């Protein structure tokens, strides 16, 4: 700590190529958190893993990011990350770990990039603290240990940041173009989420570049045009291709990439109206209740309780479980209630906010004495960049209608950068000033420790009282002692400052390890003692922190739990699609496979991060034996039912309604034509994910013969689990 207040040169020194020995353990920590035991995740996020399996089979599937080997429908995201995953699987073989590996390496790369970005201007100690804070931000390794997109997205945006900083230092237009083009590449990873950093890029370039305004405007306009061109390049090619020559664009309502980008994956994330039921508007509660009541009476496998009061409860549950479709205000997926303090609420705070108070104090210190008209130092300019990244993204997550906890990784770079730069700046002010700025360091330590106690308090039953009391007591003591010893410059004070940093990083470090300790969830990654549930936040009804499902909701086919348990959250039988608990890039609750569709396994490897992604071998044997040359092994309503069979066999399985079962892909006439061509004859229906395909499902039931369950249903999985009980296998042959 004693060297933290030393002056930092803005230009590289002669020993710039020497390895920083302090960085080595930080990288090793990041490698451990991101890589250790990823080989135990056999299927990862099965929705995306199935796509990689399909993309390995042909260039057509590879280019379009087809979910199934038959090229019927794409996944709900652009292809760049999945191109990288497919290349990894081609090199190392198709495994869960080989599709996770690129994201794990991206997580480590982000730590290194942040070190480089912060060190150059704020000094080596700032770079070290920033890198360590990035590595220990809990949601960072939680996401990086999966095949979800966000870790690679953040790495790409940090690479664009490095290019932008270089453009400012060298005053070379080529680097500006490269930086904005890289954002265009990031757009082809997760669409509009990549543009969240644009305010920072524009503000920083305008403030930091020493060229005329005319050139600034011209350069930024040209770079933005290039970014937009790169962003829509793949979309234009796909949308310009005849629909019968490519897969349907999954989760869109008009079979368009651009509609998907600016609708379902764009503005609707802010409003919460991201239902994929054929309309972007929430279904009225009365309609939901009538639908649930009607379908409950029609479904012979549903619960016998069909009273009016029961239906009302089911309708209420359906409304609350809406994720994309209702702009929910009930904190679905533990994302809290919209408002200015949302990031401090449980469910979000333990993923990203451990150092936020310290960051706020750091921002105050870094901008102390800054005049609006300048001139600005290099530190102030780069601080402005990180602030322009932090604030808009924080505002978005504070008001957005629908997102998942792991999206919060977008906040990790600016928080870590301010933690590193702020630690050095506040230490310098503490040692050198007698005014109010000298109180920022003790104040930041005290308030940060207080927030960490607040974050941990709901987990007292899981982690015990000792760590909570320890962080609180040590934070208060160290802050008070530093305040008392404010004017004393000796080694003891230095050790106290270092001890304070250790205390503030101790529990984030533990939280970052929880996916390793307790098991992670590859579908909805989060950190914490209940990380395997995929819901984050403190445990509620769940009695075992390692159990699968969502806070006590057992996934269909799970080898633990009881389907009649009061602790399970069973969605209403036959509830409408607008009431689905939709999980983009993962699964929807109404699309879970019932027990009859799955068989239990004693495999020690984790399946799909909390969602059972195993196959019913008896069903698979029956379908394989009776296939007479059909293109599709079978058809089913949604991707969750199809994914494990694609992964297992590499054969085409048709998810008729796409990801959640509600994409308007198929019509009765199209299905008739496919059957007559001999492309498909078996259909597994479970009453789930109907959405816009209810006519198709009705036609299937009216024109097929039911296959006796004894021929394909595993006797070991007869329990009535899942949203609608057991499903039914049908066969249709038309001449």
Helical amount: 40-55%
Measured distance between first and last alpha carbons: 81 Å
- Per DSSP E runs of 2 or more residues, the count of β-strands stands at 5
- Could you report the average pLDDT, rounded to the nearest whole number? 81
Structural class: mainly alpha
Protein topology:
Blueprint: H1 23-35, H2 46-55, H3 59-64, H4 80-92, H5 96-122, H6 124-136, H7 139-144, H8 150-170, H9 173-190, H10 198-208, H11 213-240, H12 257-271, H13 285-298, H14 308-320, H15 349-352, H16 356-366, H17 378-399, H18 412-432, H19 440-456, H20 460-463, H21 466-484, H22 491-517, H23 617-625, E1 635-636, H24 639-649, E2 654-655, H25 668-676, E3 682-685, H26 694-702, E4 705-706, E5 728-731
Parallel strand pairs: 1-2, 1-3
Antiparallel strand pairs: 3-5, 4-5
Helix pairs in contact: 1-5, 1-6, 2-4, 2-24, 4-5, 5-6, 5-8, 5-18, 6-18, 8-9, 9-11, 10-17, 13-14, 16-18, 16-19, 17-18, 19-21, 19-22, 21-22
């Amino acid at each position: 700590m004693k060297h933290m207040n030393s002056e930092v040169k803005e230009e590289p020194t002669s020993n710039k190529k020497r390895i920083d020995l302090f960085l080595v353990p930080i990288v090793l920590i990041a490698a451990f958190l991101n890589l250790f035991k990823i080989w135990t995740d056999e299927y990862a996020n099965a929705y995306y893993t199935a796509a990689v399996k399909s993309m390995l089979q042909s260039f057509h599937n590879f280019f379009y990011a087809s979910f199934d080997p038959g090229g019927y429908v794409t996944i709900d995201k652009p292809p760049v990350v999945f191109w990288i995953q497919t290349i990894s699987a081609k090199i190392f073989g198709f495994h869960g770990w080989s599709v996770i590996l690129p994201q794990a390496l991206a997580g480590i790369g982000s730590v290194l990039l942040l070190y480089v970005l912060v060190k150059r201007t704020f000094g080596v100690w700032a770079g070290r603290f920033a890198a360590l804070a990035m590595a220990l931000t809990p949601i960072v390794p939680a996401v990086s240990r999966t095949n979800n997109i966000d870790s690679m997205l953040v790495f790409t945006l940090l690479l664009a940041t490095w290019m932008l900083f270089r453009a400012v230092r060298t005053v070379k237009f080529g680097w500006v173009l490269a930086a904005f083009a890289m954002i265009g590449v990031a757009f082809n990873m997760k669409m509009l989420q990549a543009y969240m950093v644009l305010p920072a890029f524009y503000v920083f370039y305008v403030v930091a570049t020493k060229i005329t305004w005319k050139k600034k405007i011209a350069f930024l306009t040209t770079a933005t045009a290039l970014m937009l061109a790169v962003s829509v390049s793949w979309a234009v090619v796909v949308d310009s291709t005849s629909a019968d020559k490519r897969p349907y664009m999954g989760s869109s309502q008009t079979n368009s990439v651009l509609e998907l980008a600016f609708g379902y994956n764009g503005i609707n994330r802010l409003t919460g109206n991201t239902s994929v039921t054929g309309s972007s508007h929430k279904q009225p509660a009365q309609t939901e209740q009538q639908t649930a009541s009607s379908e409950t009476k029609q479904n012979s496998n549903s619960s016998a309780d069909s009273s009016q009061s029961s239906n009302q409860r089911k309708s209420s549950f359906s409304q609350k479980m809406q994720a994309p479709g209702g702009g929910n205000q009930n904190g679905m997926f533990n994302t809290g209630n919209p408002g200015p303090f949302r990031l401090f609420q449980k469910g979000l705070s333990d993923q990203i906010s451990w150092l936020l108070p310290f960051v706020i104090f750091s921002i105050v210190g870094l901008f102390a004495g800054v005049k609006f008209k300048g001139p600005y130092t290099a530190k102030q300019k780069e601080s402005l960049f990180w602030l322009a990244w932090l604030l808009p993204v924080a505002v978005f997550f504070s008001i957005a209608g629908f997102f998942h906890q792991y999206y919060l990784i977008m906040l990790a770079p600016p928080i870590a950068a301010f933690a590193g730069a702020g630690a050095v700046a506040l230490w310098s002010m503490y040692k050198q000033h007698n005014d109010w700025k000298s109180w920022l360091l003790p104040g930041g330590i005290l308030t940060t420790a207080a927030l960490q106690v607040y974050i941990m308090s709901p987990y007292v039953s899981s982690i015990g009282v000792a760590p909570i009391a320890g962080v609180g007591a040590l934070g208060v003591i160290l802050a008070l002692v530093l305040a008392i010893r404010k004017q004393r410059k000796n080694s003891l004070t230095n050790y106290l400052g270092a001890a304070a940093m250790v205390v503030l990083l101790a529990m984030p470090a533990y939280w970052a390890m929880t996916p390793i300790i307790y098991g992670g969830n590859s579908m909805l990654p989060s950190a914490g003692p209940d990380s395997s549930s995929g819901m984050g936040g403190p445990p509620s009804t769940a009695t075992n922190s390692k159990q699968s499902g969502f806070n006590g909701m057992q996934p269909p086919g799970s080898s633990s739990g009881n389907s009649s348990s009061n602790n399970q959250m069973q969605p209403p039988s036959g509830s409408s699609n607008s009431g689905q608990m939709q999980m983009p890039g993962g699964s929807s609750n109404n699309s879970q496979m019932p027990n009859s569709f799955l068989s239990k396994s004693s495999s020690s490897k984790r399946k799909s991060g909390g969602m059972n992604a195993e196959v019913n071998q008896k069903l698979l044997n029956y379908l394989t034996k009776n296939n007479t040359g059909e293109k599709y092994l079978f058809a089913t309503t949604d991707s969750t039912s199809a994914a494990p069979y694609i992964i297992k066999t590499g054969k085409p399985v048709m998810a008729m309604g796409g990801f959640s079962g509600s994409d308007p892909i198929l019509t009765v006439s199209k299905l008739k034509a496919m059957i007559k061509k001999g492309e498909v004859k078996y259909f597994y229906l479970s009453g789930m994910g109907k959405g816009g395909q209810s006519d198709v499902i009705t036609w299937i039931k009216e024109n097929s013969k039911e296959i006796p369950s004894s021929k394909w249903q595993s006797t070991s999985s007869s329990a009535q689990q899942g949203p609608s009980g057991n499903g039914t296998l049908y066969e249709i042959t038309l001449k």
